[in-house]
Amino acid sequence: MTAPRLAVVVLISGRGSNLQALIHAAANVSMHVELRAVVSNVADAAGLALAAGAGIQTRVVAHRDFASREAFDAALARCIDAFTPGLVVLAGFMRVLTPGFVQRYHGRLINIHPSLLPAFPGLHTHRRALQAGVSEHGASVHFVTPQLDGGPVIAQARVSVRGGEDPDALAARVLEQEHRLLPMVVECFARGRVALGANGKILLDGQVLSAPLRI
Q1: What is the pLDDT of residues 150-180, one digit of tens each?
Q2: What are the structural domains, with CATH classification, of the chain?
Q3: Is 149 left (phi over 0), alpha (psi -120 to 50) or beta?
């Protein structure tokens, strides 16, 4: 008997390259993931066309149509809940979410961030990493909490920083790793291997994870 697939809603704001990686992975019959919908706060986000081309339902909840962040988040939650997801994935979703929204999806809301958190939360991570002179950079997938990019980190992918490279070159190499990292974490969650414990610790196969998984 085939195990049921976990319903996933993906939130995007732009081109959807990590979404494309998820679409490609979910097409594998061995995956336990069903991409049920893609929602964007930007009507012309390129990722919406990717989703539609893959036969995934799309929705737009434009943040500019709402007078407050709370009103937008409430409308976004109504849209998401219509698809009854077991997991919500932020894949390049460029909005800071309110604590109420985050709490609504506690333990089933994850984000991918282009740095080795807790280093370089926020924007312009590749430029900041080069300015700081770090030898390693990468990407993290974490559970979302009200603290921006501050939730417990599930897994990370690392790259060595090359002398003389610019932020665009570094970003391209990190993005390749993001495309491996995010589907892996989503599948682990779908299989019930990864969970957020009551104390804010990551559980892997029921055991507390002492450090983020590395790929």
Answers
A1: 999 999 999 999 999 999 999 999 999 999 9
A2: 6-214 (3.40.50.170)
A3: left
- Quick one: 185 exposed, middle or buried, by C-beta within 10 A (0-12, 13-18, 19+)? buried
Angle 16-22-26 (CA atoms, 0-180°, nearest 5)? 145
3-state helix/strand/coil string of 125-192: HHHHHHHHCCCEEEEEEEECCCCCCCCCEEEEEEEECCCCCCHHHHHHHHHHHHHHHHHHHHHHHHCC
Q: Which residue reads 């919406």 in tokens?
A: 48
**CA–CA gap between residue 86 and residue 111 (Å, rounded):** 15
Q: With a cut of 80, say whether residue 2 has pLDDT above it.
A: no
DSSP percent split of the chain into helix, strand, coil, nearest 5: 35, 25, 40
| pTM score | 0.97
pLDDT value of residue 3: 67
- Active-site residue (options: 106, 113, 126, 179): 113
Per the annotation, the verdict on 124 as an active-site residue is: no
